[in-house]
Amino acid sequence: MDRSAKLEQRSSSIYILIKEPLAYTQKVLASTQVLTKKVGPVGGGGGVAKDMNINGISRIVKISIRHGFAIDALTVRYVRDGCEESTELWGGKGGNLTEFNLQASEYITSVTGHISTFNGVFVLRSLKFETNLGSYGPYGKEEGIPFELPAITGQIIGFHARSGVYLDALGVYVKANNTTGGAQGGDGSTTTGKPGTWTQGDGSNFWDRPVSGA
């Protein structure tokens, strides 16, 4: 995937995520607190907003996707406080159903895909899930503008979205890995990461940068 692109706001209801090299350095304080960042969403502005309450979630265990020429729907199964729960169906009931289970030691490190117009609606056309042990997909049709929702130096523990008949847009919750200095109670350390991801947002953190007017 080309890592030399940038985020553009094509209209008030369409947000396109591509990447542009961005060097950043974050000071990690001496703390055992796990930081969680909300990234995205990427895609169209149609449908209804969907979200996961990530409090107490330790890991994702199963992903269910309905897909054909676009991504019709997504369901996420996860562990919260030792018990398994599932989201409702985000999207419609069209397409074919594909499901995959994550191993106990497996976690999602990035979600990639394509977005474009389908049946007159700007939606997700394809999705692929990368993990620390492999990958799942791609599902749907790899057609349109490519995007990536990376976990940077952590793991994806949840999702948020917009959906109606299709899955219009998708975003992720990223749980950052503790640094050695901070986790061990030292004086913290300075972590330099990979190129950052530009998304619609208020610039409150290095994952969430403001969109410039287009």
Automatic annotation (TrEMBL):
One term of GO molecular function: carbohydrate binding
Comp. bias regions, Polar residues: 189-203
Keyword Repressor: no
Keywords for this protein: Lectin
InterPro entries from the UniProt entry: Jacalin-like_lectin_dom, Jacalin-like_lectin_dom_plant, Jacalin-like_lectin_dom_sf
Disordered, as annotated region: 181-214
Pfam annotation, one family: Jacalin
Domain Jacalin-type lectin as annotated: residue spans: 36-176
Protein name listed in UniProt: Horcolin
Organism: Carex littledalei
